[in-house]
């Protein structure tokens, strides 16, 4: 059994501070040109100090690993005669994982082999990974007067690769199984809260982005030359992460545009492969893969007064979506009696996307664009093969369901162009509709 937990907390924050010697908190003051406030994960050594990178690589040299991950990942070969790319429908043998690791990466491999020339051979392996890191970039309780742009960004990318492989063989009975369980949680938050104060800047951009995926293989083979062979493989992947770009409270006097971006990519590739073979009476096997994506992505502007040229609030970007590809394969064969087994693949997408403008007063010299979109794709394959000289009992089931949602909402005080730019269909000084 192998269990790993990834729970980093990375924060970039500008806030009020307590003066030396105590007393009431003092507001931070930001004046000058442009400001970038960013919290993000990095991939490999390129984004780190050269001296640190060199020392780290030297430390890892004897272990066969590398800080950038290129050497480590290139040595991983998870192959099988299955769909090479379930998402694009291409057939043929290939790698389950074929790509570069992301900013945070977990590589987990669990293996077991049980062999006996006596009555029983028993084996099993389990790989459990929990990934729940949080990345936050936020500005609050500050006086802000800038002549340039203000950018607040939180970005996080993570890949989890896990394999659990087991085997057992015996002269009489063989029993073995393997399982992978990958749990994805965590948050990526970018926010700005001015309270009752006024912020001045040219362009204001707030963005939160998350990407990456979970890749797993549960493989098992059980053999017996005697009476019974029992084997199974289970793969479970569950992703439920939150991404949010938020602007709230205060007054915002901008010489340019206001942009709120939130995007999230969730990708699951999972395979559960099991084989139970005996020359004796009964072979029993099963393969199950369960995959769920239930992430939340929001871009919100609320309880604020904004003056700007253009306004963009969006939670949809090209290449960012929810993708699941799964394979459940089972073989149960008996040379003298019965083979029993099943292959089940269950894939669910329950993700949500929301772009919202609420209880705010927005005056624009240009245009407003609010957009939200959820791209969901599922490819599921279930293959079951059973046989025996007397009977073969089994079946395969594939359940795919996309029940996500995306929405754009405007409520309360809406956005209205400034007086000089109002089109003819605005009939009131402060129109209540966009």
Shape field:
elongated
Biggest β-sheet strands, sense, barrel: 10 strands, parallel
Percentage of residues in helical conformation: under 10%
Number of helices: 2
Low-pLDDT segments, ≥5 res: 63-69, 72-98, 421-434
Q: Determine Rg (CA atoms, Å).
A: 27 Å
Give a verbal description of the structure.
With 434 residues, this protein is mostly beta strands. It is 4% helix and 63% strand. It has two helices and 33 strands. It has helices at residues 50-60, 70-74; strands spanning 2-6, 9-14, 28-32, 35-40, 79-80, 94-95, 104-116, 120-131, 134-140, 142-146, 150-170, 173-184, 187-193, 198-201, 204-224, 228-239, 242-248, 251-254, 258-264, 266-278, 282-293, 296-302, 305-308, 311-314, 322-334, 338-349, 352-358, 361-364, 368-371, 376-388, 391-402, 405-411, 415-417. The chain is elongated and about 85 Å long.
What's the topology here?
Blueprint: E1 2-6, E2 9-14, E3 28-32, E4 35-40, H1 50-60, H2 70-74, E5 79-80, E6 94-95, E7 104-116, E8 120-131, E9 134-140, E10 142-146, E11 150-170, E12 173-184, E13 187-193, E14 198-201, E15 204-224, E16 228-239, E17 242-248, E18 251-254, E19 258-264, E20 266-278, E21 282-293, E22 296-302, E23 305-308, E24 311-314, E25 322-334, E26 338-349, E27 352-358, E28 361-364, E29 368-371, E30 376-388, E31 391-402, E32 405-411, E33 415-417
